[in-house]
Write a structure and sequence with these properties.
Largest sheet: 7 strands, parallel
Bound molecules: nicotinamide-adenine-dinucleotide, magnesium ion
Radius of gyration: 20 Å
Strand order of the largest sheet: 4-3-2-1-5-6-7
Shape: globular
Structural class: alpha/beta
Strand content: 15-25%
Length: 392
Amino acid sequence: MKQITILGATGSIGLSTLDVISEHRDKYSVFALTANTNVEEMYQQCALFNPRYAVMSCNDSAVALGKLIENSELETEVMSGDEGLHRVSEHPEVDVVMASIVGAAGLKPTLAAVHAGKRILLANKEALVMTGSLFMAAAKKAGAEILPIDSEHNAIYQCMPATYRSGMPLKHIRRILLTASGGPFRNTPLSDIKGVTPEQACKHPNWSMGRKISVDSATMMNKGLELIEACWLFDTTPDSIEVHVHPESIIHSMVEYDDGSVLAQMGSPDMRTPIAYGLGWPDRIESGVSSLDLFKISQLNFEQPDEERFPCLRLAAEAYRLGGTACAILNAANEEAVDAFLNKKIRFDQIATLIERVMESLAPRQQADFDMIFEDDAAARLMAVKLIEQGL
Ligand code: NAD
Ligand code: MG
């Protein structure tokens, strides 16, 4: 029986993870669930999965959940804040940690699991984007297994030789073909993109996801973050990675070998596939995902990304090249920009402008340690808020 902690259990990835686990109650036991403020959903999950611990990041939410549990027959212990998150990430009885908190908020608990040498199912790409080499070095030192859950990186992992593990240098591989859907505005006239609403941006054509990653998909910053994520996971550089816009989202990414062979991983766009892969690895388990109907899909299309339409892709590649704390600055500026867009403080096209301005205003520091990364993350957020207040 494997003991699982799910960080961010009430989100899109968290729910899909619980859906897969619910079909394999003989193999996986839910040790701990965490969430930010969604008390009602967390209470329902506790009733269904009976975890030893439930952690609410927000203290008031922890109090509210505690009252609900007290008045029930449940024995789940409620904890709160960073300390609670740390405890359930590094607890000696935990085998697997699903890292599915969104954004920089997921970094510290994910790192706690890394330092404790857990198997980590990594959905929280922002954690790796921010800390890159430090994250991978810590995983190597502690013997933590990093299994990518992001569908593209999971696909690439599946196309690697069976002995390949995250962080190892690539052998006999010419390039990685990273696929992208192009999001909801791939064909929207450029003049109309300025005025798109948060609701339109969150309506992804193929995937159902949380709001932040949905906006990232619409700006293609998601692909930019994934480019950086792939560099760290597969010990490579942007020069060996080519983004292919593939609007059907059936091929989740590809690997080209020296002999010209191109291996692709395909499937319906449903995150339960990579989640089941991570849970079952090195075995395979049922995910609940239906079979791919290629007759119905009938065509797979590919395009080059449009750099004018999607400046965030260029900004992400630039941050990777700058190195040091540049990716943390990029990520923090993006999180603030997306939040401001969702709260209607800036327009959609101003997301990229704001990130670029923040990157121009702050020089990244090299040979950074974790503290410097947190400092530059905070500085980038302050700068972003200031620029928004000044009207950009
Ligand atoms: P979501 O918004 O649906 O869920 C986020 C979860 O994190 C929730 O449980 C929420 O309670 C928790 N959370 C939010 N802020 C928090 C905070 N400050 N402190 C503690 N917990 C907090 O997001 P999602 O779509 O499930 O995405 C989660 C992560 O997985 C993201 O990093 C995303 O990029 C990545 N990812 C998601 C998908 C997808 O299909 N949804 C695919 C690939 C990668
Ligand atoms: Mg992805």
